[in-house]
Each structure stands twice: as C-alpha cells, then as structure tokens.
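Incident log, entry 3
Record: Isocitrate lyase/PEP mutase family protein (288 residues)
Problem: checksum mismatch between cached and fresh output.
Input:
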Amino acid sequence: MSLNIRELLSGHEVIAAPGVYDLISLRIAAQCGAKILYMTGYGTVGSHLGVPDAGIASYRDMLSRVQIMAPMAAEFGVPLIADGDTGYGGVINVAHTVRGYEAAGASAIQLEDQTFPKKCGHTLGRSVIPADEMATKIKVAVDSRKDDEFLVIARTDARTTLGLDEAIERMSLYAEAGADLLFLESPESVEELEIIGKSFNKPLVANMVEGGRTPLLDTASLGKLGFKLALFPAVGFLAAGYALEKAYKEVILNGNSPEKTELSSFEKFNSLMGFEDVWELEKKYQAK
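Fresh output:
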C-alpha cells in the first residue's frame, strides 16, 4: 500500500477514512485494510487529555500524537491525515504547525477557519475568521511544506452560522490559495451535498458523523455526488465507548466477565499488538 496520498486520491473510487484516536484504534483500522487513516481531533483530544475538543489541546499536545501515530501508520503502509485545527494561531503558527506535522510523518493536514477557541464540527455556535485571513493561512500552509506530496486540506465551518452560499464562496477562495482538498463542514441535506459536489473541480471531503448535522451516506452515493474522500471520524470512539460501557457495567454491577461473543479473543488481541514477533525474537535469541 502506497504512502502517496495524492496518488490514492487520484483514482476513481471514493476512499473511506476511518477516524483513529490512539494506537490500538490505529492498529485495528490498518489491519482491517484502511487505505487512508484520519487522526480525529475529537477522539484524539478525548483519549489523550480527557477533555472536550473545544480549543483546549495545544499544538504541542496534538503534535505529540502525530509523532507516535504517523510512524505506526507508515509501518502499515497507510497515509495518515492529521487534524491541525486552526493552525494554533496566526500565519507564523500555521507555518510552524505544517512543518511540524510534515516532519512527524503525517501525509496531510486539515486546517479550519474557525475563531479561537475552536469547537467541534457539527456543534452549534461556531464562528469563523474573515475569509481573506483564512485564505492567507492556506497560502502560508502550502508555501511552508517541504514536499508537495504533503497535502493541505482546507475546511470551512461557515455553513452552520453563515449559510451554504458563504461557505461555498470561502471554499473557492481557499482553492485559489492552493488547498489540495476542500472540506465544507456540516452541510444539512443531500441537496446541499449535491450542490457542493457540482461547485468545485478539486477533490472534495465529506464528513460522515453519526448523530451529526449531515445525512449519513455510503461512499458509492458520495462518489455520485462528486466527493473523493469520506471521513468517518467518530465511528471508532463511538463503537468503543458503547462496547466499553456495556462490558464495564457487567463487571461492576454483576461481578462477571461479559460473554465471550462480545469480546475480542485474548489470542486475537495478542496478535493485533504484535506479540508473535516478540515471542519469535525471544525464541531466536534465548540461551541454549
């Protein structure tokens, strides 16, 4: 599997990128055959700091996650898109963020036009900076990368508060500034998705959030509407949260382990984590 994310996105298929938020979720997604991985800000902030994705995490917090997740994704041969929030400040911060994420091994960075402190997409009350200010940030991001294969994804959160027309105008500006992919967050109907798909000739990102503001569509449907990349950022931590709550309640309330059918086998999890390699190495070098 190639780490060249631009090449992957140049094909005819729409690629589904599952959200990963720690190294176990990354391993599982990669071993399930993911072609692109998405380091979700919501899940990463929650798992690393235990706080809401509301502008609390710093550049240093998020860079530390990219630095451990991107190399593991590379071991599996899978590109990692990393959430870079607003770039953590002005143009100097954006340049520093892009260089840091690229050096850490990410294949792409997502930057959004929210004001600070940012809020999770698909929530109400998000505000955005002036469009020309964000266009400058995108230009700085593009100019700051060392390799053109490191992609810059421009996201606007303008739809919810300023309407679809404003969001499309912003996307056009960000495209002119050099963004490689365009990400219009939280459209509210299939009709809006269709309008977005017809409005641009650059690769488009759709964000499929269970319980969010956008209708959930499969990749085939999104492809017909003109999208190239489908993010499923929340599916991993929502599934894990449900399973953990159910299992922990069984242990705490009933004093029992859950049924084996509801758990991954210990042997399978040992394999997931790479214990066979450990045992093989020990066997090879153990004293005879």
